[in-house]
Amino acid sequence: MDKNLKWKFNSVSEKAKETAGAAVALAVFIGGISTIFHPIAVMLSLAYATGTLIQGEILMKFPKFRDKALSKFLKSGMAKELPKDHDLLKRIKKVSNRLNQKDMPRVLIVNADFVGKMAAPPIIRKLFRKSIEENMHRVFGVAPNSNIFITTEEGLKSTKNKKDELDFIVAHEMSHIKTDKFAPARFAQTILKKSSRFLVLAVAATVAASAVGGAIPLISTSIFSAVGSLFIATTAAGVAWKYGSRIAEYRADRNAMHLTKNLDGAVGCMNMISNFNERDMSGFQNIFSTHPIYKYRVTALHDSFNKVTMHDAKVKFAQKINKASCASPKI
């Protein structure tokens, strides 16, 4: 087949936009915190965040580190392996073969404690416990570098009689594994999140020192100004990396459409995982979201379906031409 007719799971322009979003996010964040916090506090926060990034993303590519981390979660009871004869595993294997993946992902069923641990620090986690539990049926995800597929008991139940929707979810998540290893947006997110948490502790240390009459010169302004400025820097940087995240989601949707060729299943999936409030979200709210809002995403799915249909028609036409040329008598 002509190379130009092969489906492009990745595009240079998309990767460039993702990388630019991540770069802007880091520049805005580092520039913002550098005007508020002492250089030592900034360097320590970035060193801590980078260490976490290496441990959670890069080292997890190696089986030894990945298996050790998984063992902790399995022993803690926050996760368990999907049974080998489960229907979901068969669907994942089918898509994995189509994507020419060398290794099948490990599939974990996780509970609310696991989701909360991944989503927020302990104090905030308790405040949003109810919200986490109410949305467990929507939890489907992957860790591309670790080659891990994650879902929940609630997620499996919600898709039990929705095979087309489940096929789209599997294709979408497996596309992330294929295209999003070392994703710039995810790296920027980790740096911002971990560095921010460190700097919040730096502010707390300053407050504690002031209360006992000591001094820890970690911030160069008032405590209230430091907290406000940190919030602004984190929010502004978040807009940039979330832009890259939405590009990755659009790409995974497009690739999933190529794999499933089922528009009804894709739109049905969006209806299943979104609530009515999210369907009325505005374009302004989209800016602060890691995933495209419902109306934008459904519109993009229709566009992707049209592109997949045109692509497949070109492939079939090229195959007919090739077959005819091979069958024609040589003079």
Task: Provide the gyration radius in Å.
Answer: 23 Å
Helix content: over 70%
Strand composition percent: under 5%
For the record, the count of structural domains works out to 1
The biggest beta sheet reads: 4 strands, mixed
Low-pLDDT segments, ≥5 res: none
End-to-end separation in angstroms reads 25 Å
Number of helices: 15
How would you write the strand order of the largest sheet?
A: 1-2-4-3
How many E-type strands?
4
Can you give the mean pLDDT? 87
Shape: globular
Order of helices and strands: HHHEHEHHHEEHHHHHHHH
Describe what you observe in this structure.
- The chain is mainly α and 331 residues long.
- It has one domain (31-315).
- The protein is built from 15 helices and 4 strands.
- Strands 1-2-4-3 form a 4-stranded mixed β-sheet.
- Strand 3 and strand 4 (148-151) form a beta hairpin.
- The chain starts with 11 loop residues before the first helix and ends with a helix.
- The mean pLDDT is 87.
Write a brief structural summary.
About 70% of the residues lie in helices and about 5% in strands. The protein is mainly alpha-helical.
